[in-house]
Amino acid sequence: MKNEKDISRNVQKRIFQEANSRCSFCDESEVATLQIHHIKARTEGGGNEIENLILVCANCHTKITSGIITEADILRKKIMLLKGKTEARSSSASQNSIILENSSNAGVIANTITIKNPKKSSIKMQPPQGTIAADRVKRNYIKYLIDTYHDYKKKDQNVEKMNYAIFYETIRKRFKCKWDFVSEEKFEELAYYIQCRIDGTIFGKLKRKRGSRNYSSLEEYLTEI
Ligand SMILES: [Zn+2]
Asked: What are 77-101's pLDDT values in tens digits?
């Protein structure tokens, strides 16, 4: 894959060893699908050092790109790998701070995460200022719209399992970043875009024909929650 030739063979080998030649997230062991992911993207200054790399399968790589696997999930996993604890695989992904003892991974820095006091540190997650992620209400409203879109799309396609990554990827391409890293100034544009996509589904069109609405406005959403 594209970036790997720039990573030294020695580092590649150590990344595979670190993860026991399995995807760090789903345990996939098929070598052909394993890839090395840059935790902090190289376009954002991330390097090819072990602390910035993690072994993933193609499937989970897509989940990372689309935000289903979050940067916090990646960091948590990477720290466990650095500590050599494979039980991290089953650990909950919902806590938002972890304690590191005696670890030497002060080099792991992603753009949303700062490591304070590397000797006895905790990782604090702070969404970047000025993004939708930094505003809980706006973030939740966008998430509500995305979920609504997926609900309707499921009805259109009449399938149980759908590929959620596709729509996340569409948003990422259009807004040039992950959905919740879109700047707050573009909140309305993003909301409007997703609303149009909901209205454009077959189920959405049917509902509108019958005189129902497809989603709540932000104000209505706020009173509902
Ligand atoms: Zn995987």
From this structure: 998 888 875 444 444 443 333 334 3
CA of 28 relative to ligand 1 center, distance in Å: 5
pLDDT per position as a tens digit, 175-208: 999 999 999 999 999 999 999 999 999 999 999 9
What is the number of other CB atoms lying within 10 angstroms of the CB of residue 178?
19
CA dist 100 and 108 (Å) reads 12
Look-up: residue for tokens 């000025």?
A: 130
CB 181 within 8 A of CB 128: yes
97 C-alpha to center of ligand 1: Å? 23
Distance 137 CA to ligand 1 centre (A): 31
For residue 27, how far is its CA from the centre of ligand 1 (angstroms)?
Answer: 6
- Residue ranges covered by each domain of the chain: 4-91, 132-224
Distance CA 164, CA 166 (A): 5
Residue partners of 214: CB distance under 8 A and separation at least 6: 148, 152, 195, 198, 199, 204, 207, 208
The structure's pTM equals 0.48
